[in-house]
């Protein structure tokens, strides 16, 4: 095979992968931006009523986080809501802290799960207990190490519920701190949100995050809760939406008014195991979700690989180099604009050349987790928090 034919084949692969990549960036990945603009223009119908809400927070040994963040949940600008803390066998001062806060906040309740309880997924059990204890139809979920960004969190999330709505997906962000790991976590969190919110807006919801999501109590019981997923340690958030989320019953809330902030992992090791836990549910995703979620990193890998090969093989071909480098820079410019514009929606710091690093590194980590990492996953004991 002549070198010129190899060039043509590689260029064809480069352009095909580039078209797929641009398709992702211009369609699902701009969904947050498009939705935000429509909301500002008043073109998105919202429910102006304020139905009673039950906020459910599961906690295991989260005393210090509850002391720090729970008052921000209890001081929301919303008339009728309760907060239920499911204390899952904590051996710290969680219960004492809740009792102290109950003296100030009359809408705060606690329910306990015994320390000796044995079950594969404690988080799913804790959520189920919380749902059963809830008085209201609208359930809003976050974690003990999370805080609402604004006092309008409940209002902004709940405004999406109409007669058809069963699931509402919000953005669960992380505090941006100094250091490489924190910056990588921020990038990973933002781009994942761009993807799952984008596909939900296109009518193909496949996941949400337990740090910020809502659904109906009647929906939970109609679907028999987590009955089909109890053999999986994780998946208390994404599997419900992946199995039952539809175009007509799932809405996204992209506003920063509904954003929650969590404490990020501070070491690569801790973040890796968190990532491993999250990806442990991918195997039971619907085939359609696997296809769309897998197509983006696959086409991305092809793009980088063919770019590298064309630069190596065509180093003495100015036209070939110009086409290759031009394609690379054009895609990077698109990424730079769309990713940083979306970060601006959440008042987050932007990204520069680090986009290229994370764009290559994160899929490789994910690929490792989904292949070689599976061997170690069988031995891992995941903690739900």
What does this structure look like?
By secondary structure, this protein is α/β, with parallel strands linked by helices. It folds into two domains: 3-28 and 289-372, no CATH class; 44-265, Spore Coat Polysaccharide Biosynthesis Protein SpsA, Chain A, CATH 3.90.550.10. It is built from 14 helices and ten strands. It has helices spanning 3-26, 31-40, 63-74, 94-102, 122-133, 153-158, 180-201, 217-222, 238-244, 268-279, 287-313, 318-345, 354-370, 372-377, and strands at residues 53-59, 81-88, 108-113, 138-143, 146-148, 167-169, 172-174, 213-216, 250-252, 260-262. The strands form two sheets. A seven-stranded mixed sheet has the order 3-2-1-4-8-6-9, with helices on both faces. It has a three-stranded mixed sheet with strand order 5-10-7. β1 (53-59), α3 and β2 form a beta-alpha-beta unit. α1 packs across α11 (287-313), α3 (63-74) packs parallel to α4 and α11 (287-313) crosses α12 (318-345). The longest helix has 28 residues, at 318-345. The model is unreliable at 379-385 (pLDDT under 50).
